[in-house]
Specification:
Shape: globular
Number of helices: 4
Radius of gyration: 19 Å
Number of strands: 7
CATH architecture: Roll
Structural class: alpha+beta
Strand order of the largest sheet: 1-4-5-6-7-2-3
CATH topology: Nuclear Transport Factor 2, Chain: A
Helix content: 25-40%
Largest sheet: 7 strands, mixed
Order of helices and strands: HEHHEEHEEEE
Amino acid sequence: MKIRLLLALVGLAVSFALPTFAQVDPKVDQQIRALITKWDDAFNRSDSGGLGALYTDDAVQVNVHGTFRGREAIAKQFAQHDFGQYQSNNHVLKVDRIDAVGNDVRVTGKWKCAFHDIDGKDKHIDGHYSWILVRQGNSWKISRVTADEGIGY
């Protein structure tokens, strides 16, 4: 009898915890996927300003080049590293998960792109990313980003 009560309590606790990570509404899912497409399009045009516009004013991005705070710093990082130093292109974001977290949305997945190495040779690299998105007005903006770098292929 005590085991049944314990199992019921555990089940109840789990059911209260689950809504903190929930699937997003299909309309929101579509909006998020459109944002991801805009991000890849801006990246592949080497448009650091266009990328910056997709972030909140106080966004934070952490990647292999460091931690960048604010929309302007993030846009500058893209201009200097990705488009200046590495001449990155053919960027593709793949979504693995889109989860509602309170009023925000967490997106996780994989990325890949091409770039020129120091010898001018084309290389490919990939990795994983995680975004936290917040609603601003009628659109979603990127608030927090972490991205790692995998092994080039």
